[in-house]
Amino acid sequence: MDPNLDPDVAAYLSVALSAVADLATASKQLENLTFDDIVTPQTVDAAFLDAWAARSDSSPEFQRCAQLVATGAYKWEDVERWAVPFPPELAEMRNSPSYLWTFPKADSHPGTFEEHGFSGSEPGFSRPIKGGRNDVVGPSDWSDDDDEYTEIRSWLV
């Protein structure tokens, strides 16, 4: 600083310059901050999935899985092995860094409708494939319900 500067002015100037330096440091730290540094992932456990299934906007597939868990026929821990079709919310939770999946990863394919006692007429379930092999899926099996929607909508919002 200038030696001819009034000492009171120099003191105020020193405080102001220090605040500017602190602001510059904080701005640089904020630039380097990621979303994951601020938000911790939501733990996905049985209680969380039960609460999610109670939401009015959960998918029919998810609600059907919750019904099966509530009856004691299945457990949430094994949902990746038995849920056919797999609810979209669970797929997004499983693959999202915002959710911490606490269940063991499934080793095998979930199976077919028949293996799990579904006729395909339950609300929210896709129809079984008519004729041919059960593991083949094609355009005739895809729903046309979403044709009018042009934007992709996440079940997690």
Overview of the structural elements:
The protein is mostly helical and 157 residues long. It has 2 domains: 7-35; 40-125, no CATH class. The protein has 6 helices and 2 strands. It has helices at residues 7-31, 35-38, 46-53, 60-70, 79-82, 88-95; strands spanning 42-44, 99-101. A two-stranded parallel ribbon has the order 1-2.
Order of helices and strands: HHEHHHHE
Low-confidence runs of at least 5 consecutive residues = none
Q: How far apart are the first and last residues' alpha carbons, in Å?
A: 55 Å
The profile of the biggest β sheet is: 2 strands, parallel
Helix content: 25-40%
Shape category:
elongated
Report the sheet-strand fraction. Answer: under 5%
Number of strands: 2
Separate helix tally: 6
For the largest sheet, list the strands in their spatial order.
1-2
Class derived from helix and strand content = mainly alpha
Instruction: Determine Rg (CA atoms, Å).
Output: 27 Å
Mean pLDDT level: 78
* Count of folded domains: 2
SSE arrangement:
Blueprint: H1 7-31, H2 35-38, E1 42-44, H3 46-53, H4 60-70, H5 79-82, H6 88-95, E2 99-101
Parallel strand pairs: 1-2
